[in-house]
Hints:
Elements: H1 2-6, H2 8-39, H3 45-85, H4 91-101, H5 103-117, H6 122-149, H7 152-155
Keywords: Membrane, Transmembrane, Transmembrane helix
Protein name: ABC transmembrane type-1 domain-containing protein
Organism: Enhygromyxa salina
Amino acid sequence: MVLLIAISVPIMLGIETLLRVYVLGPLYGPVLTELRGIYWPELTDEIIATRATNTAWILIGVTVVAGCVGIALLRWVIRRASAATGEQPTPNKIRDSLLLLTSIPQVPGLLSTLCLAGGGELLPVLICVGVSTSFVVVQGFVGERAIEAMGPAAAAC
């Protein structure tokens, strides 16, 4: 399940790129170029690409911070759930928390794919998507380790 969550951002990057190149570009490209010429003539393709690339580089740092926050929150939620009730949290609660908290490092990864659509370079986007995917996998290992620590009967649930 964690693997499916982890590969969702790279899959989104591929689908978004295919749609942009083969569907949206031919359909809306001329219209957007004309509107930009009317309303924002100072924005050239180079300026937009530079801003998108810089934003993608910034999002790498945001993804690292978000990933660390996501891992810390997952550990805190697991500890808090066991401390509040005085018993071990159920595997379902851990999995639910895991599904929710894996979105924290994925949001900057998804935003970086929009930078590619805005004309940014591919390298920072791929790095950001890779970092995002790595943090989701780490969160999955933390969650699975917590479930395994509960014992074999709980892990089978």
